[in-house]
Amino acid sequence: MREVLYYAPTELTEATAILADHRDKAAVLAGGTDLLPKLNYYEVKPHALLYIGRLGLSSIHNGSSALTIGATTTTADLATHHLVQQYAPALAQAARLSGSVAIQNAATIGGNIANASPAADLVVALLALDASVRLLSHSGQRDVHLADFFLGPHLTILQPDELITQIHVPLSPGKTEFLKLGRRKGQTLAVVSVAVRLQLDGDLCHDARIVLGSMAPTPLRCRTAEHLLRGQKITTDLIHQAATQAIAESSPITDQRATAWYRKKAGEALVQRALLQALDKKEVRP
Amino acid sequence: MKQQVLTFILNGEEVAVLVTPTETLLDVLRERLQITGPKRGCDDGECGACTVLLDGEPVRSCLTLALTVEGRTVTTVEGLMVKGELDRLQKAFYERGAFQCGFCTPGMLMVAKSLLAKNPNPSRDEIRSYMAGNLCRCGSYEEIIEAIQAVAAGEY
Amino acid sequence: MTQYVGQAMPRYGGIGQVTGTTKYVDDIVLPGMLYAKCLRSPVHKGIVRKLDLSAAEAVPGVVGTLTAADIPGQNLYGFSGDQPVLNNEHLRYKGEPIAAVVAVDEDTCMEALEKVKLEIEEQEPVFDMLEAIKPGAPIVRPGTTHNLLEFFPGVTTRILKLGDVEQGFAEADYVFEDRFVHNVQDHAPIEPHVSVAYWDAADQLVIHTVSQMPYFHLRYLQPIFNLPLSRIRYVGGVIGGAFGAKNDIHADHIAGLAALKFRKPVKYRWTKREDLSYSTKRGAWVFEYKTGIKKDGRITARHIKQWHDTGAYGALSVYAVEKCGMFAAGAYHIPNILVESQIIFTNKPIASSMRGFGVINGQTCVEVHMNKIAEAIGMDPWELRFINAWRDGDQGVTRYTVQGAGGLEAMKKLAELTGVQLPDHLMAMSSRRR
Fold first, then answer.
1. A271 in a domain, yes or no?
2. For a 10 Å CB count at each end of chain A, is N or C smaller?
3. Which residues of C touch A39 (CB under 8 A)?
4. What pLDDT was estimated at residue A1?
5. Considering CB atoms only, which of B57, B65, B70 is closest to A49?
6. CB A1 to CB C108 under 8 A?
7. ∠ CA(A156), CA(A162), CA(A165), 5° rounding?
8. Are residues B41 and C107, on separate chains, in Cβ contact within 8 Å?
9. B43 contacts in chain A (CB < 8 Å)
10. Which residue has the higher pLDDT, C154 or A283?
11. Would you say the C-alpha torsion B61, A186, C356, C341 has a positive or negative sign?
12. Minimal Cα distance from C274: which residue of A?
């Protein structure tokens, strides 16, 4: 039978050296919720498994301008951690609505990003918060804006010898909301998800983020819709216009979960609802 | 494939077992240790029948690579009984018929165990939400919720 | 005895289920047990031109392979008797088993399956049943000229008839028509299909099965193995959900053949993905309903046409369609009924039984149809149903006499439970008299 090597390093330098050796023949394993189905069904056949759960990357810290979240922090921790609830409530909400309890206990933030699913719940929230990722290889490290990270469904700029080690979530001001529509309420992949952030200046919108999940090949920032809101007085009419514009920027597909037609209809309603509900939310202040 | 020794605490006892790197915890429990309480439903993390507690928290054993549990604590349905006595949840599930075919029951019990450990008095909505990842195709959901509520209410 | 009547009893064997000690078939692990996996058709329709298993057999850990040539008896089984166990000729649906690999574990089986040299001449499939009965449609069954199942030799439309519908429509004040389309549905029990087979000390082939109807299945398995029934020990009883899925053999034939050939215990199990994609289904259905009705709400005639998509093989579709025909007109007194049924082969997975099969598809249609009629004639849908509901002595389409009718009483109870106030003249009605 085919040999597979297993590594569970405790040092980052060890981990990046292993990746440098095996490159794309290695599979990086964190929580396993995306990798294991593929292993169980022989869809991937790595020569080596690199388990990164013993690298000490499960932590959430509060810096002066950003939350620093270790790549193997679980979704369950994100959902319940006081710092995330306080400074990134949309991320906590996305974590809470992702998968079942058992999945949340295993699934990691780094894994959700690296898997690059168009439906990735955490990514949708993280994009609304202007998050960036730290990528480490044996030859150095780089920080990349999450908005520049994704290339397509399950395609990213991550190099075969690179590891996601940290996620930086700027302490962005504003009112946020994350909403998700699935085929059922619990343990489900998004038919449409949306994260919004509104930075208000009195009744004027100083800045806005509108991000859609499952509506394009990657989680999508709707920049033209955001621009519609910027500098404007927020009214119900404007919110409707922004929602219509956000959907115009999307390119959903028809798949087993929903038709493209339904995604557009439901997505528009969801964006409207998210913007309206965000207005009623407590403002996050760094 | 080359085998390695995996050591972990299973239902209160240390076990050492030879495993290959691609085996899941479910494979090791069922095929190597004959701990067949956790069921193989989907191998995809969807159904919940393989759910076990890892350091007290529910996880899918089909999505947990066996070697990653080195040194950790695993509890399966076989570990619920204490000194030959059924756990209160087992008693309530049995007496209230909280299953038909019973294939989902070992997973349901483990998630319910974890729920009551965190939240001894959950509301109906909290139960539904916490148990949402475990599927019962026979449709015993009502009886399952009632059994958990009965345990929380001190009836067992 | 008296203390048990009317009391809820704890589930028989339930302690095993809550302690995890109940032995489901996949829980059986025997010393030296081998595993089997099937090579499945990668195409919806095609002809096997080359099947070379030598490279698969050379994989370390592979004990051997199974093909149609290894079957001691007949390579056909199923309720309709038309399914090959292993098909290396004309493939009729994606996922159809072609051969099997038997090895020390499933990883090895999967490695070996990748090494099989399989060449198929792919053919144009047909998926839509109504396309499949048009002239020039691809033919699903080789050697035939059409895609219709024959209920009896030469009979492709099953007709059930009571009275004369043409006369009934002539008597009607209104005639209403509806069309209904039902899609394919999977049972998705949590326990996938699985079987364990071995030779025991008494020289019997023992098979641990998840079968829902073991005596039927024993009858299909015996001619495959070509063993006397006395030498097959078929052990069942513990099933992790079925819902009709396990009314068809999915694993016992393969596990049994492997145990026969290799004289070792063999486990054959499907993955959940195989199960969802390739196992039997509740088939697709198309219905056309036509009903004649008087102004006072009395139904004079009902004409039903049903087309059932049985997929690649017949399985239990005849049973489903005949049962559907018997009840599709609804639990109503209708003097003139005509039901015309056709079963159509397509290149889809096999349609067979699922929960109330043959009954609920027709019942769904008839009740929606009744509501639409009530709306069209401006009558309360309760009243329309009360007027026409079966009374004792009414006749069904196959001329059975209704006895112990209870529809009216059930509807009264339903009204009570849902807080609907029914008028006195409806409350005065009884199933005992018209």
1. yes
2. C
3. none
4. 64
5. B65
6. yes
7. 95
8. no
9. 37, 40-41
10. C154
11. negative
12. A41
Please tell me the distance in Å from B29's CA to the nearest CA on chain A. 16
Closest Cα partner for C18 from B115, B151, B80?
Answer: B80
CB atoms C190 and B99 under 8 Å = no
Give CA–CA dist C176/C189, Å, rounded. 39
Q: What is the pLDDT of residue C357?
A: 86
Q: Give residue limits of the domains in chain B.
A: 4-79, 88-152
* Closest chain B residue to C108, measured at CA: B1
Show the tokens assigned to C152.
Answer: 């009896």
DSSP C267-322: EEE--HHHHHHHS-BBPPEEEEEEEEE-TTS-EEEEEEEEEEEEETS-TTHHHHHH
C191 vs B39: CB contact, 8 Å cut-off? yes
Q: How many domains is chain A built from?
A: 2
- Say whether pLDDT at C402 is over 80: yes
Q: Does A47 touch chain B (CB under 8 A)?
A: no
Is some CB atom of chain B closer than 8 A to the CB atom of A2? yes
Q: Residue A11 belongs to a domain with what CATH number? A: 3.30.43.10
Domain ranges of chain C: 158-185+281-427
* Token pair belonging to A213: 């999940």
- Tell if the CB–CB gap between B36 and C11 is shorter than 8 Å: no
**Residue whose token pair is 């492709």:** C156
3-class secondary-structure state, position A206: strand
User: What's the confidence (pLDDT) of residue B120?
Assistant: 97
Fold of B88-152: DNA polymerase; domain 1 (1.10.150)
Closest by CA to B129, choosing from B117, B147, B141, is B141
Reported confidence tier of residue C3, pLDDT bands at 50, 70, 90: confident
ipTM of this model?
0.96
The shortest C-alpha distance from A6 to chain B (Å) reads 6
Q: Which domain holds residue A275?
A: 176-279
Average pLDDT score over residue span B78-107 = 96
Pairing relation of β-strands A204-213 and A220-221? antiparallel
Confidence label for C1 from pLDDT (cuts 50, 70 and 90) = low
Contact call for residues A69 and A58 (beta carbons, < 8 A): no
Answer yes or no: are the C-beta atoms of B48 and B31 closer than 8 Å: no
C425 touches chain A (CB under 8 A): no
Which of C107, C111, C186, C190 would best serve as a mutation to test chain B binding (most B beta carbons within 10 A)?
C190
Asked if C192 reaches chain A (Cβ–Cβ under 8 Å), the answer is no
Interchain pair C10, B101: CB under 8 A: no
pLDDT one-digit tens code per residue, A113-155: 999 999 999 999 999 999 999 999 999 999 999 999 999 999 9
Contact between A97 and A180 under an 8 Å Cβ cutoff? The reply is yes
pLDDT of residue B1: 77
Q: Do C272 and B41 touch (CB under 8 A)?
A: yes
Give the residue-averaged pLDDT of C342-355.
97
Q: Give the dihedral of Cα atoms A75, A80, A82, A85; nearest 10 deg.
A: 70
- Predicted pLDDT at C240: 97
CA A119 – CA C346 distance, rounded (Å): 34
- A:145-204 residues touching chain B, CB 8 A cutoff: 184-187
Residue type, C97: P
In the predicted model, what is the mean pLDDT of residues C382-408? 96
Segment B48-69 shows an average pLDDT of: 98
- C162-215: pLDDT as tens digits: 999 999 999 999 999 999 999 999 999 999 999 999 999 999 999 999 999 999
Nearest-neighbour CA in chain B from A35: distance (Å) = 8
Residues of chain A where predicted confidence (pLDDT) is lower than 50: none
CATH topology of domain B4-79: Ubiquitin-like (UB roll) (3.10.20)
The whole-number pLDDT of residue C232 equals 97
CATH class assigned to C158-185+281-427: alpha beta
For residue B139, count CB atoms less than 10 angstroms from its CB and return exposed for 0-12, middle for 13-18, buried for 19 or more.
exposed
- The answer to whether the Cβ–Cβ distance between C60 and A2 falls below 8 Å is no
Report whether C51 contacts C65 (CB < 8 A). Answer: no
